[in-house]
Design brief:
About 65% of the residues lie in helices and about 5% in strands. It is elongated, with a radius of gyration of 20 Å. By secondary structure, the chain is mainly α. GO terms for molecular function: DNA binding; DNA-binding transcription factor activity.
């Protein structure tokens, strides 16, 4: 028998149903930020979002608060909640941390991943290759590949840190895999990383992941430049 929903108000004035709606609104807004429907600087108006999602304003308010806690949304005086715009140094720092964390994950996975996990990574990458031309599917398989690799590293603190980085990167909009050439390159790079894991060669896996991350970073900066969205408001401290 399915558990009953607790409809009694919580201490913060919302019900369990409201909380579930808030999580749904949060997931929807995350998707819209990732897909570029909500671009940096976009104002998030409770009434507009509630009307669009056909829910009350309370779960929308809860979702916006959660996005603020994630660092994806900020409050501006006389404007309200808006999607954050990352500065150029912030983008570079995020990718720098992503390189450190995911390269470490690749090195650890070479030691601790089971044969089944390595085979699963290979299969996910093959499915990604079969999805060439479908950027949404490629994004999802790419996400699964990196998540499976990090899980195979067997370090819960590393996983938590990587999740935080990936969430902040959503502000930058659509995946770099929207470029067909980058998608094909990423698949080849994944394949090389899997081969290093199978050989239990930690240093090679780490270096191959570094190359993979650096290519992703260069593609990201290119896409931002082509969109005319390269942040330059705080570049005076960048030589």
């Amino acid at each position: 028998m399915a558990p009953k929903l607790d409809l009694h108000p919580r201490s913060d004035g919302t019900s369990t149903t409201g909380s579930l709606q808030g999580q749904g609104a949060y997931a929807r807004l995350l998707d819209e930020i990732r897909d570029g429907a909500l671009t940096p600087g976009t104002r998030l108006t409770e009434t507009e979002i509630a009307s669009r999602l056909d829910i009350s304003r309370t779960p929308v308010r809860e979702a916006i608060r959660q996005l603020e806690a994630d660092g994806l949304v900020e409050h501006r005086p006389r404007t309200g909640a808006v999607v954050r715009r990352l500065s150029y140094p912030e983008i570079m720092e995020l990718y720098e941390m992503r390189v450190v964390l995911e390269c470490t994950a690749a090195r650890l996975a070479a030691r601790s991943a089971s044969d089944v996990e390595i085979a699963e990574l290979d299969e996910i990458n093959a499915e990604m290759a079969a999805a060439t031309g479908n950027s949404a599917a490629a994004y999802e398989f790419n996400r699964q590949f990196h998540r499976a690799l990090i899980d195979a590293a067997r370090n819960r603190f590393l996983l938590k840190s990587v999740n935080a980085i990936h969430k902040t990167l959503l502000i930058l909009g659509p995946s770099t895999l929207t470029e067909a050439a980058r998608a094909e390159q990423a698949i080849a790079e994944h394949r090389a990383v899997v081969a290093a894991l199978r050989d239990r060669d930690g240093p090679a896996a780490e270096q191959l992941m570094r190359t993979h991350m650096e290519h992703a970073q260069r593609t990201r900066l290119k896409l931002l430049r082509l969109r005319g969205d390269t942040p330059d408001d705080t570049r005076e401290d960048v030589i």
